[in-house]
Each structure stands twice: as structure tokens, then as C-alpha cells.
From TrEMBL:
Example GO molecular function: lyase activity
Protein name: Enoyl-CoA hydratase
Key word Lyase present: yes
Keywords: Lipid metabolism, Lyase
Family annotation (PANTHER family): (7AS)-7A-METHYL-1,5-DIOXO-2,3,5,6,7,7A-HEXAHYDRO-1H-INDENE-CARBOXYL-COA HYDROLASE, ENOYL-COA HYDRATASE-RELATED
Organism: Actinoplanes lutulentus
Gene Ontology biological process terms, A to Z: fatty acid beta-oxidation
SUPFAM superfamilies in the cross-refs: ClpP/crotonase (SSF52096)
Length: 245
């Protein structure tokens, strides 16, 4: 349970926080450290980011925030998410996410910053942040869906299926759930077979021509989450979620 790193030419980083992979604050930091460690290993050619359990990621652990006095858990979760998303983006080798079930909130940050996404046909993507009294990861959702759909998803908290993203080209393949990990490994093996020096140069060059500074953009979004928390809207929304209202 937690974050697992399996080293190799195709390094696998596995998220495992039962029951729904709502990641606690220290889990985001562990995830950032695992991805960074995999990328720093000269033997690593590709990183595969996947998850165990019912879904890829349900975002931050809101219950942890509500049972922790003060703002420490909120601040830690925000910093942890920023670190984990940045680790995926800055990883010197390509990162492939294998998404099954739900990819929500912080899961969008991970998938949106990845180089490739492979999804199971049961996967859905969404940002429930407005219903949770927070904002963030629209930066990353905008890398997966067109602009006005991104806005619609933020305002309504609707989810969309992997098949729709496949149509946009932002999900490379959609496969049955029991074939997800194998499909991701096939693509990873294809990339791992290339010259690793060239692949690392390609990753650096693609980040260098990216039109958006994803780290700065995401931290800007997070500022509004702090405002919502200060005026009480964030806490009210989180409490409604915890109480099931």
C-alpha cells in the first residue's frame, strides 16, 4: 500500500491507497520522489505510472483535511500535488499513464502532465473541484480536452469517458481493463527500444517548446483555492462531501 517503485528499463510507479486512491498529503510527496528517482536512474528509459484498486486516482484525501486542525493538511496537499505533477512533467524520460476507472482531481494533474495516456474502456476523467470548494488542475485538463469543454467540465463537474479523449487524440489507446497494463507496457517497450540519449533529448526539447508553463499556471490556480478556504467556502464544501451531503 502507498507508492511503489519497480525499477528497470521501463520503471513502474504504482499508486495504491485503498479504497479509491484518494492520496494523502505525504502520498503526493512520495509519488513525486518515486517518479524523480525513476527518472534519475540512468537505466530508466520510460516511466509507467499506474494504479491498483477501483480507479486510477480520486484526487486528494479530503477526509484527511477535515480531520486535521488548522490549514496544515490543506497546505501540504497543495504542495504535494504541485510536486507530483511537476515530477511527471520534469521527468527526463517519457512518462506513460495507464488510467482505469476514475481519473479525478489530482489524477487529471498526473495524466495531463504525462507524455502519453493509455486508458481502460471504463475510465472517466473529471474535475470535481468546484463541488469540493477548490480550484486546480484545469491547467492539466486543458491538455486533454478542448478549451470550452474544459470550462464546461470545471463549471459542471461532469466527467467524460476515455473514448471521447481518444477521439481528441489525447488518449492513445482505449482497451479492456484487463489489458490495460499490457497495452501500456507495449508502448513503453517501443519507446524503450529507441536510443536513450536521443529520447531524453526529445523529452527536454518538447518541454522546451511547450506553450504553457504548467507549473506556474497550476500554482496560480491554487491561489484561488486558498482564497476559498480563507472565506469559508472551501471548508463548507469539504464538510458537505465528508458528510455525504
Amino acid at each position: 500500500m502507498g507508492v511503489q517503485l519497480h525499477r528497470g528499463a521501463v520503471a513502474e510507479v504504482i499508486i495504491d491507497f485503498p479504497p479509491v486512491n484518494a492520496v494523502p498529503a505525504d502520498g503526493w510527496l512520495a509519488l513525486a520522489e518515486a517518479v524523480a528517482a525513476a527518472g534519475a536512474d540512468s537505466d530508466t528509459r520510460v516511466v509507467l505510472l499506474a494504479a491498483e484498486g477501483r480507479g486510477f486516482c480520486a484526487g486528494v484525501d479530503i477526509k484527511e483535511m477535515q480531520r486535521t486542525e488548522g490549514h496544515e493538511a490543506l497546505i501540504a496537499a497543495n504542495r504535494g500535488c504541485a510536486a507530483a505533477f511537476a515530477a511527471v512533467y520534469d521527468c527526463p524520460v517519457p512518462v506513460i499513464t495507464a488510467v482505469h476507472g476514475f481519473c479525478l482531481g489530482g489524477g487529471i494533474g498526473l495524466a495531463g502532465n504525462a507524455d502519453l495516456v493509455i486508458a481502460a474502456d471504463d475510465a472517466v476523467f473529471g474535475l470535481p473541484e468546484v463541488d469540493r470548494g477548490a480550484l486546480g488542475a484545469a491547467t492539466h485538463l486543458a491538455r486533454l480536452v478542448p478549451h470550452q469543454l474544459m470550462r464546461t467540465m470545471v463549471y459542471t463537474c461532469r466527467t467524460v469517458p476515455a473514448s471521447l479523449l481518444h477521439g481528441f487524440g489525447t488518449v492513445l489507446e482505449v482497451v479492456p481493463p484487463d489489458q490495460l497494463r499490457a497495452a501500456a507496457r507495449r508502448v513503453a517497450a517501443e519507446i524503450a527500444g529507441k536510443d536513450p540519449v536521443v529520447i531524453r533529448a526529445a523529452k527536454a526539447s518538447l518541454n522546451g517548446i511547450d506553450p504553457m508553463d504548467v507549473k506556474r499556471s497550476y500554482r496560480f490556480e491554487q491561489g484561488f483555492t486558498f482564497e476559498l478556504n480563507l472565506n469559508g467556502a472551501g471548508d463548507r464544501a469539504r464538510q458537505r462531501f465528508v458528510e455525504g451531503r
